[in-house]
Specification:
The protein is about 65% helix and about 5% strand. It has helices spanning about 1-10, 25-65, 70-85, 100-110, 110-125, and strands at about 95, 130-135. Mean pLDDT is about 75; it is low at about 15. This is Membrane protein insertion efficiency factor.
């Protein structure tokens, strides 16, 4: 019985003679704690680096996709949102608003399809038209979600 208690105490890091931690077990616990801390820090570094890489790739994709026509259209839309839109009453029937919709459409589809989608949205934006959530999507694409 004493042997079983001694084995259990020894495996738990206690010295059998005085129920005190031995230097070896203390140093081993410090090493394992240090390894755990390093592993956590490495995981955090890897996660932050992957997040930064994703952001850089997104920025590069935005720069690659945005041609001169898209940049011109986006700058006109930014001017409209900054200077003209505050002077008009809030009466948008859709989410996102028509200006945000057209910005997303230009970024996603380019100049030609973005212009077509923006014109189609402006035709629908009237008192007899619909309302609600309407993200930009090309005509043959499925809606982002379907209500059941």
């Amino acid at each position: 019985m004493f042997a079983a208690a001694a084995i259990a105490a020894n495996s738990a890091g206690f010295n059998v003679c005085g129920n005190q931690l031995t230097r070896r077990s203390i140093s081993m616990r410090r090493v394992t704690a240090r390894h755990r801390c390093l592993a956590v820090n490495n995981n955090k570094k890897l996660e932050s680096e992957s997040h930064q890489n994703e952001q850089q790739q997104d920025e590069e994709e935005d720069h690659v996709e945005n041609s001169l026509g898209v940049e011109a259209a986006l700058s006109m839309l930014r001017f409209y949102k900054r200077e003209i839109s505050p002077l008009l009453p809030n009466s948008c029937r859709y989410v996102p608003t028509c200006s945000e919709y057209s910005m997303e459409a230009y970024k996603k589809y380019g100049v030609v399809k973005g212009t077509v989608l923006t014109a189609w949205r402006l035709c629908r934006c009237n008192p007899l038209g619909g309302s609600g959530f309407d993200p930009p999507r090309w005509f043959d694409e499925d809606p982002p979600f379907q209500e059941e």
